[in-house]
Amino acid sequence: MILHPESHFIGKSKMQDGRRRYYDLFSYVYDRFIALHSRRDERNTREFLVDSAQLMSIAKPRILDICCGTGTVILTFAKIYPESIAVGIDFSHGMLLKAKEKDLKQKVLFAEGDAALLPFSNDAFDVVACSHALYELKGAARIEALKEMKRVVKPSPGSVLIMEHEIPRHPIIKLLFKIRMVLVGSADARAFLGAGLEPFRKVFSNVVLSHTPSGKSRLLRCGK
Fold it and tell me: What's this model's pTM, rounded to 2 decimal places?
């Protein structure tokens, strides 16, 4: 069972309407923004994350993408692992609409919900992914989201894959990044990005750090 037996709705109580409206609007330009930020590295970065899941030995893997946005990562998982049970969750209705538009073969289950209050059973997924989104959560919600990831992922070899930005060097991209930091709460987000592995080691017993080939993102592989 993937859904938590007591979950008859997906928790929205912790969501802020203002932030949700911002991301609903942002969904119209989100993919173009990511393409500008990543330039030629977007595909390689996404494939690096998916390859790191190492799911080849599992016949029908269960995969969860938290803060899935417009669905690029979870749709890549579904393409590479066509027999998987693939789930994407996001609190933005607009982002999910864009994701569903891309899912022409309806391979992914998309759900609207809160990363800090996941509606899934314990040990439900072989892999839980969260790509370039965790820094946008506030401190307390971020810790709760990490705890929820740990709860819903299976024990080893189950893993949580968290990809985050390195601070950009290109002047224009750095300016856009700073603007986004202000919108999500600059001080808290920058403190999190500068804290290294410490926030993850407080939740997970095993944390391994690697970097994408471009060096623009870091990947943390976390286990119970």
Answer: 0.84
